[in-house]
């Protein structure tokens, strides 16, 4: 209930601020002001409304998918516009006071403010469209090469944060799978948040996911959204597709000198740091890889004895300026980090959560090449 109340308060506050900034001045009729307020309040409340409709089955799958995309697009636009207005007015008022009170730049002038609002709304629309293209385009392949104690080069493809749900276009899932297979991976790793809906709604997506092929297998470790949507069914589904499920355990890949383990991102035990048996079955000379969806405890996890941690969860921030908050809450954001001589790598993810938007955090799948030490 706290989340619902907090969301309602934020939605009301942001809607009031947006309405006051856009039409709260001058001689705008009260109906215009009320209409703008209702439009933005509806946009800010879209996630709550859609979640309620989804839980209660108000619409069929096709109709719900349409409402979901439209609602989350409106929510994303409202957020981007709010951020632009906030930043604009902050810098505008500060600059007006610091650099001189020129009448041509008076932020309290109704005519000047009206023109500034029009420009800001246009920029918000353009940024929303750009973010939509970034989110729905085929992910880029981000490459990383690491020196490792392996007898031969090993190609690992990392796919995470697909967030498969009934509203995702099937063509996007198919494109990710085809791209991954085209990289001829030796190993494919899925460090969480692949499934984000009840399995009964995901049959076409799961059929595409089952087509992932790698010489030494596909390895999965659950993210928080697998727990939200049913950990046991999600694990069962992965096993049915022939994937190797890792949850506080690991597997040795014979012939490669690699040991892969996984820690599921159980929200109820997210602060746990001790996993005394997770390296059981490994040997001292093995190159040890950990799949851990949430990167926040990377230092503690790597100190268990791993050489490389592959993580997800952050989406690279997904929509700027969430980058800042994501970095604060998770300690790490995106890309490669050196931690006490060990390596943490975080992929932005191949999908999106919530709004079908990515602003300055493009989606990706990762090709990690382990090469022998010379």
What's the short story on this structure?
This protein has 374 residues and is an alpha/beta fold. It is 43% helix and 17% strand. The chain folds into 2 domains: 2-135, no CATH class; 141-372, Purple Acid Phosphatase, chain A, domain 2.
Q: Could you say how many structural domains there are in total? A: 2
From the 3D structure, determine the CATH topology of the largest domain: Purple Acid Phosphatase, chain A, domain 2
The helix content, as a percent range, equals 40-55%
CATH homologous superfamily name of the largest domain?
Answer: Metallo-dependent phosphatases
Decide which structural class fits the backbone. Answer: alpha/beta
Q: DSSP helix count?
A: 11
- Rg: 23 Å
What would the average pLDDT be, to the nearest integer? 93
- What is the end-to-end distance? 57 Å
Q: Bin the strand percentage.
A: 15-25%
The second-level CATH architecture of the largest domain is 4-Layer Sandwich
Spatial order of strands in the largest sheet? 1-12-2-3-4-5
* Major beta sheet summary: 6 strands, mixed
Report the top-level CATH class of the largest domain.
Alpha Beta
Query: What sequence of helices (H) and strands (E) makes up the elements?
Result: HHHHHEEHEHEHHEEEEHEHEEE
Question: Which geometry do the CA atoms define?
Answer: elongated
């Amino acid at each position: 209930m706290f989340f619902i109340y907090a969301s309602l308060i934020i939605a009301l506050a942001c809607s009031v601020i947006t309405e006051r900034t856009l039409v709260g001045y001058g001689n705008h009729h009260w109906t215009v002001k009320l209409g703008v307020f209702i439009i933005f309040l509806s946009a800010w409340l879209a996630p709550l409304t859609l979640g309620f409709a989804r839980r209660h089955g108000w619409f069929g799958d096709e109709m719900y998918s349409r409402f979901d995309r439209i609602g989350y697009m409106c929510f994303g636009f409202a957020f981007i516009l709010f951020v632009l207005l906030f930043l604009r007015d902050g810098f505008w008022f500060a600059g007006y006071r610091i650099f001189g009170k020129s009448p041509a730049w008076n932020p309290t002038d109704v005519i000047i403010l009206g023109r500034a609002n029009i420009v800001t709304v246009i920029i918000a629309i353009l940024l929303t469209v750009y973010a939509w293209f970034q989110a729905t385009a085929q992910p880029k392949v981000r490459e990383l090469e690491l020196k490792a104690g392996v007898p031969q080069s090993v190609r690992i493809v990392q796919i995470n944060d697909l967030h498969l749900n009934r509203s995702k276009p099937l063509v996007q899932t198919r494109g990710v799978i085809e791209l991954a297979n085209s990289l001829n991976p030796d190993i494919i790793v899925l460090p969480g948040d692949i499934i984000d809906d009840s399995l009964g709604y995901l049959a076409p997506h799961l059929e595409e996911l089952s087509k992932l092929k790698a010489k030494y297998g596909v390895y999965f470790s659950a993210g928080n959204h697998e727990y939200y949507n049913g950990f046991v069914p999600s694990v069962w589904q992965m096993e049915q597709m022939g994937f190797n499920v890792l949850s506080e355990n690991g597997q040795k890949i014979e012939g490669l000198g690699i040991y892969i383990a996984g820690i599921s991102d159980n929200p109820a035990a997210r602060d746990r740091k001790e996993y005394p048996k997770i390296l059981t079955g490994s040997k001292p000379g093995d190159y040890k890889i950990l799949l851990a969806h949430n990167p926040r405890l990377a230092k503690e996890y790597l100190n268990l004895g791993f050489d490389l941690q592959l993580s997800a969860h952050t989406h690279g921030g997904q929509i700027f300026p969430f980058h800042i908050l994501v970095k604060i809450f998770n300690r790490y954001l995106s890309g490669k980090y050196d931690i006490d001589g060990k390596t943490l790598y975080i992929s932005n993810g191949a999908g999106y959560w919530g709004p079908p938007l990515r602003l300055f955090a493009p989606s990706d799948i990762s090709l990690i090449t382990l090469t022998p030490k010379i």
